[in-house]
Amino acid sequence: MAQSSFELIARDGRARRGVIRTPRGEIRTPAFMPVGTAATVKGMMPESVAATGADILLGNTYHLMLRPGAERVARLGGLHKFMNWDKPILTDSGGFQVMSLSDLRKLTEEGVSFRSHIDGSKHMLTPERSMEIQKLLGSDIVMAFDECPALPADRDRITRSMRLSMRWAARSREAFGDRPGHMLFGIQQGGLEEDLRAESAEALKDIGFDGYAVGGLAVGEGQEAMFGCLDFAPGMLPEDKPRYLMGVGKPDDILGAVKRGIDMMDCVLPSRSGRTGQAWTRRGQVNIKNARHADDPRPLDEHCSCPACRGYSRAYLHHVFRAGEMISGMLLTWHNLHYYQELMQGMRDAIEAGDFAGFEADFHAGRAEGDIEPL
User: Right CATH number for 5-267 from 3.20.20.105, 3.40.50.2300, 1.20.1630.10, 2.60.40.60?
Assistant: First the structure.
């Protein structure tokens, strides 16, 4: 199988335009990855996700190992075939979900033992087992196993966690082995502490990875603190490898992250917002539940070419949400994912044109206008 690679095409300030080449296709960066937690992006058909412009999806190791099981997915031909997605897939390591979803867990040097949030069954997740699960799933980009403490946390807790994650990163690298066509990403930790981030980055570079994630952000610290960390953290990572900010975020989070040198992001927000009646547009957020939309024949966004905006009015979207119809979440999710991918394409074009500052100004100006006036 051919090797995977990363090429930087253009820079504008610290913003980067590039491409990750994999045997399953190219990933244009900056890239936003829709989240397919349990082998599906909720409310969307795979071909619909592709139609929004997504080059890659994220799958969740923790959820898939518990149900339907990684061995079962492997027997059925791997995750791509299982979920009918032939483009690249990145799988997270499972560490974050173990920490956030399992009340009954025990952390040791070996790994994490925990009980399933589904049925209470006992499991053990180690760097070696995480690599095995992700290999069984067949993901194109594999994440090293790490621990991600919630912020705020004291410096001693963050230091111990980061150093444990670096030892686990070395074990992940060894267990991953040599897999042509697949990439392994290390995860930088260290909270908001610049010296700990630097120590983590040096440890990861010594081990050697195909890409590097900035982990441990978007876990309660707020945008200002996150941007403060991103002012220094990405620059500590290799220039010639992709940089992935995990679990981010809102459109303005994404813009600010790209401005600071991030190449890849993921978040459940577009699909989760769609299911709860929230739409993201160039003029900010729209709450379709509001009564102001009940008689409005206009689309969510007259400049948007997604199916929700081409074929349906705000009045209809308001009605089907109020009626509890499934099409509501489907259409709003499609719109949100389309908007996110349109945002990424706009940033890619702006970086290549050397006008990221202009794009950023237009982005904030549009949001400052607010939603269209009620009829």
Answer: 3.20.20.105
